[in-house]
Amino acid sequence: MARDVDEDVDHELLAVLLPKMSASSKQQEAEDSDHNPQVVVTPPGAAHSIRHDRSLWRDLTAYWILGLCNNYGYVVMLSAAHDIIAQFNDEPEVGEVDDTGKGRECHLVSTGAILLADVLPSLFVKILMPFFPFWVNVRIGIAVACSAAGFLFVGFANAEWMALLGVIITSASSGIGETTFLAYSSRFNKNVISTWSSGTGGAGVIGSLSYASLRALDVSPRDTMLIMLIFPAIEAFAFWLLLRRPQVLPVTTVESTEELISDEKPLVGFKEKLSYIKHLFKYMLPLCLVYFFEYFINQGLFELVYFENIFLDKASQYRWLNVDYQIGVFISRSSVNIFQLNKIWLMSVFQFINVVYFLTEVIWFYTPTIWIVFVIVLWEGLLGGGAYVNTFYRMSKEIAPGRQQFAMSMVVQSDSYGIALAGFLAIPVHNAICELPAAVRSVVW
Q1: Run of H or E including 105
Q2: What is the span of the domain harbouring residue 396?
Q3: Are 199 and 68 in contact (CB under 8 A)?
Q4: Any transmembrane segments, and where (predicted)?
């Protein structure tokens, strides 16, 4: 009888305590979610509402525009590299003269110098940004202001140092924007990675094509740069007016914070972040190699590819090869929702083959028509853009949401490492080829 009474008491206690324990558990989960903004405890059905967010188009569109505007100035400076050098040199430098008295016409200060000015400040910024407070509005305000200042400096430059300073400021703007926007993307639907990448590819096409077209219409370099001031204004509109503020971070759905294992917890402190970097090498190394090979071609060898007596002069050939390359980048960066490739290292192998082709071509001039070069350059752009978008798309799926913000900020540096190394190597290789006797193209279609 006593046993039955004890059991009745136990049941009564359980009936009282269980609701309180459940409420306490829910309160604790809510507190954990508040203290850790990277973890979202989502009630049943919430994930369904996120997937059917009717205003999602605003975020996707904003990220496309932000990718376009952030990379636009960077692309324009590279497209204008040949002109930036030429305007402060009355005559091109000429390499060794052969028996016919004709040498290679090329600048001994290659467009690799512009590449370094365009990428080193960006790389410096990208290295520092992951360890600074994530004050997103301050960062983007600085990025927009620097972008506008860069166009003004280059447009009104009356000396080479002033033009290079404009390129440097534009580079810093791009670096601040890229690290911030990619880190910020962890708070939105993962498809903003796709639209961001497509926008950066669009910057390549629109940037190189707009510059080449305006120069073909005899618009002065100064007026060209002033016209392009519209893009920093569009960037500000897209970020502060079009992009929604993230109310709830749609990063994961868990029933309890206890489901989070140690590998998924957000990184806290400099030491913990530094220790985590080694886990990102599988993303960083292939992307770095692809961009190293790619920009070694673009800034060290493009300028030396030349077909005489065709419908394009030397400067125009350089500009339109850049347009062609950027078309390839845009196509591949816009394709991740249709086609994914996880083996990024394979793209680095193909890009190395492109290096071999271009290096031998600029030495011996054996390609019979510029149209073959256009096809290979398009392929080069497809590889570069594909490596970029597939790397970050993989990360959005494979890395725990709590660590994506830091991981994105770190891996985005890897393309800049490759580009910087390419710039340093492109200058001596370019100058060595300039010293060779001029090759003669036997057949031109």
Answers
A1: strand 103-105
A2: 267-444
A3: yes
A4: 108-128, 134-154, 161-184, 196-214, 226-243, 344-364, 370-393
Coil, helix or strand at residue 243: coil
The full length of the chain comes to 445
Same domain, residue pair 233 and 273: no
Distance CA 384, CA 378 (A): 10
- Domain total in the chain: 2
Q: Considering only CA atoms, which of 216, 114, 174 is closest in space to residue 426?
A: 114
Q: How far is 271 from 403, CA to CA, in rounded Å?
A: 14
Report the CATH number at residue 279.
Answer: 1.20.1250
Rounded Cα distance, 73 and 283, in Å: 26
Which pLDDT score is estimated for 81? Answer: 65
**Residue 109: DSSP 8-state:** S
What is the reported pTM?
0.72
Which of 245, 275, 304 marks a domain boundary?
245
Tell me how far apart the alpha carbons of residues 253 and 314 are, in angstroms, rounded to a whole number.
57
279 and 382 in a single domain? The answer is yes
Q: Beta 103-105 vs 94-97: how paired, if at all?
A: antiparallel
- The pLDDT score that the predictor gives to residue 45 is 39
Task: Note the pLDDT tens digit of each residue in 120-135.
Answer: 888 899 888 888 888 9
CA distances from 390 to 65, 286, 301, 335, 344 (A): 20, 11, 27, 9, 8
Low-confidence ranges of the chain (pLDDT < 70): 1-52, 81-82, 85-103, 105, 107-115, 247-264, 442-445
Residues whose CB is less than 8 angstroms from the CB of residue 289 and which lie 6 or more positions away in sequence, other chains included: 345, 348, 351, 352, 418
Cross-strand pairs, 103: 97
Judge residue 312's burial from the number of C-beta atoms within 10 Å of its C-beta, 0-12 exposed, 13-18 middle, 19 or more buried.
middle
pLDDT score, position 336: 82
User: Under 8 Å CB-to-CB from 197, ≥6 apart: which residues?
Assistant: 67, 333, 334, 336, 385, 388, 389, 392, 393
What CATH number has the domain bearing residue 223? Answer: 1.20.1250.20
pLDDT of residue 37: 40
SS3 annotation, 132-201? CCCCHHHHHHHHHHHHHHHHHHHHCCCCHHHHHHHHHHHHHHHHHHHHHHHHHHHHCCCCHHHHHHHHHH
* 15 occurs within a structural domain: no
Report phi then psi at 254, rounded to 5: -130, 150
Residues paired with 41 in a beta bridge: 254
